[in-house]
Amino acid sequence: MSQSLMAREALQAPEQIRRQLYENQNTVKDIVTRVKKFAPKMVYLIGRGSSDHAGVYAKYLIETELGIPVCAAAPSVSTLFGQALQLEHALVICISQSGKSPDILHQVKQAKKMGALCLALVNDESSPLAELVDQVLPLKAGPEKAVAATKSFLCTLSAIASLVAEWADSKELALGLQNLPAQLQDIVNQEVKLAFNDLKDVKHCVVLGRGFGYAIGRELALKLKEVCGIHAEAFSSAEFLHGPITLVANQLTLVNIEIEDETFEHHKKQVDEVIRRGGQVLTLKGSNQSPAEEQVYERLTPLIIMLRFYLDIEFVAQQMGLNPDEPVGLNKVTQTL
Predict the structure, then answer these.
(1) Which of 55, 71, 307, 335 has its CA 20 to 30 Å from the CA of residue 157?
(2) Is the distance from CB of 307 to CB of 189 less than 8 angstroms?
(3) Long-range CB pairs of 78-82, under 8 A, 24+ apart, other chains included
(4) How confident is the model at residue 197 (pLDDT cuts 50, 70, 90)?
(5) For 27-32, what is the mean pLDDT?
(6) pTM check: above 0.85
(7) What pLDDT, on the 0 to 100 scale, is given for residue 326?
(8) Do the beta carbons of residue 316 and residue 196 sit within 8 Å?
(9) Where are the alpha helices (DSSP H) in the chain?
(10) What is the per-residue pLDDT for 291?
(11) CA-wise closest residue to 20 among 174, 139, 149
């Protein structure tokens, strides 16, 4: 099979992240200096699609490392309901690959008027968003032409992690980021985690994770829909027990995101309950057998899982006779209000 644009771009992620971490060092320090002086009482996240999913990772990382509450924007409150929110003590982080969507720009304008400090994590540094905000943290993913975002999503997660590592003065996270590009390259060369036979008969599935596992669950579910045409929905494994677990009786397939952190034992018990009820479970986890010198830092395991997943489902889609570069009815840049 010919290698798709999606696969080629996903394979660029280790090098793009290495470049990003190197080139953004001084920028991150400058941003954190300004953020600390501003002393935000909360963080307000703005994003759509994969950018919104990256924001879930940002929420878990900022709240666990810094203890600052984080919430996600509901864009229509500003654009359609016309309400301006009180954000004078908020750090607004806007995540966008293109930096062009009208609803994103409108929200940032409103946030600035209401006193927020606005930071953009954006790939297009010449975009209207980059010109509008107070600070820019470039994703440096390089041009991304495939409709299904891969390297830009991973570069967003690494940018978030670099920001938090500096802000929280986390030596563990900083060291983990140093090792990350090599570990991402290692996972490229390892065996597949999700194969054609796992998904060939699947029409509906649930993606289960807890904490940082759930943080990437929504992106994983989106890609199953976009690339493979599989109806997939993401749940926290704790939330899944509050009603949706009854779906297991319908021979539902579950994709289990397993991360060995503080949530591991609780999440495992919940997945074991799904298995006890007859659910078919496919488990994805970051490799602990990486040839890289250091084990993957647990807060960065989501990037390892996602890169392997992107490569796997691209190949599965081709085996299904689908073109991963042309998801039905989708465009690369979506503009909404």
Answers:
(1) 335
(2) no
(3) 78/103, 78/106, 78/107, 78/110, 79/103, 79/106, 79/107, 79/337, 80/337
(4) very high
(5) 98
(6) yes
(7) 81
(8) yes
(9) 5-11, 13-23, 25-38, 50-66, 75-79, 102-113, 128-132, 151-167, 171-188, 196-199, 212-228, 237-240, 264-276, 301-319
(10) 52
(11) 139
Strand 231-236 relative to strand 253-258: parallel, antiparallel, unpaired? unpaired
What SS3 state is found at 231? strand
Counting every residue written for the chain, the total comes to: 337
Which is nearest to 71 in space by CA: 50, 88, 47?
47
C-alpha to C-alpha distances, 279 to 235, 274, 303, 335, nearest whole angstrom: 15, 5, 26, 38
Q: Do strands 90-96 and 70-72 pair parallel, antiparallel, or not at all (unpaired)?
A: unpaired
Place of tokens 């591991």: 264
**Rg, C-alpha atoms of the chain:** 19
**Kind of pairing between the strands at 204-209 and 117-122:** unpaired
Distance CA 96, CA 83 (A): 22
Contact criterion met (CB below 8 Å) for 164 and 170: yes
The secondary structure of 42-89 as a DSSP string is EEEEE--THHHHHHHHHHHHHHHHH---EEE--HHHHHTS-PPP--TT
Tokens 């864009």 belong to 75
CA-based nearest residue to 223, from 98, 311, 91, 120: 311
Collapsed DSSP state (helix, strand, coil) of residue 138: strand
DSSP β-ladder status, 253-258 and 42-46 = unpaired
Do the Cβ atoms of 259 and 285 come closer than 8 Å?
Answer: yes
